[in-house]
Amino acid sequence: MSADKAKTHKLARPFKQDRDIADWHGRYTPYDLAKEGLIALVVVVLLVTGLAVLFGSPDDTPVTVKSWSTANAVDFAATAIAELDGTSGTATYGAPYNTNGTAMSIGPISPQKWLGVHHPINTANDYVLGPLSTVANQPEVQAAVAEYKAASVDQQAAWTAAYEKAVADATFVNGKLVVPAGAYGPVGVIISSLTSMARSGALDGALLSSRQFYGTDYTKPLLFVADGTFLEGLAVNQHLAGDQWGMMNETGSYPGQAWLWLYTLWYQVPAIGNSDNADIQVFAIMIGLTTLLALVPFIPGLRSIPRWTRVYRLIWRNHYREVEGQGGGTSTSGSPPQVMGEVREPVTVSG
Predict the structure, then answer these.
(1) Spans of the chain, pLDDT less than 50
(2) Which of 92, 135, 266, 328 is most open to solvent, judged by the fewest CB atoms within 10 Å of its CB?
(3) How far is it, in rounded angstroms, from Cα 22 to Cα 25?
């Protein structure tokens, strides 16, 4: 359709307040876009720099397997035995780490299941037996690992169950893990040696080993630490737990990033927060709300709320005070030009 025909077609159809743009018959104000943009950039840079100096993010010491085992060796040992017998959070999580858990889903929609296991983690081998197999000059450790691997599944389960019961009453005295005696076979030597390895910092390095030159994949140590109670305790103290709106917070700065409140809000709803499918439910809600927001300019009625509420007169009150004081300068519809239900002030650009 040519420009002339399009213009004729536009004039032929009736004007619709919710859809069409009224012609502007008021005055135009010169506006230097380049100048204003430069001023805005300078102001933002100064504000960001100044606020970063005054209220910068805290430089907290990172939590590592070494710092965890040093601060709470008993919690480390209790977590290590759960990794060995496959009852930890990571061991039973499911995709993308293993096939032991039930994937989150909403009806037939289950992206976690569709993507499958693409970061495989065997907690017994990756967190306990594998790292200990690298320990040199400690034949008793290698003998304990070999004995455990050679035992039947039932025997391994009996050993780990006995140790889990005993470690609940464990203590750490004079640099050694002291666990009540029990029928846990080589597991006592295995967990005690792993605790010493962790406190030395060697376990951190073993969990970061990769084929790449730079070890940047911290998935294994992070999941290991998260399976214990130490990291959770630190999170609660810093207001970072899920029931403390933790997603919108940051360490040392409470309440933190308030713009994340909408995402965190849904986890405070008991029906969602207590659900095994909470993450995918919140994700679906946010996708729906984001889509609705993106479609606002195309939804009749909803897109006209700014016009009906006349909120633009509050925003541009100085402009309307000046125009109405002169007794003119209004559009044919009594409001500034509107695009997709929004109002904009007409300007001319110079520079």
Answers:
(1) 329-351
(2) 328
(3) 9
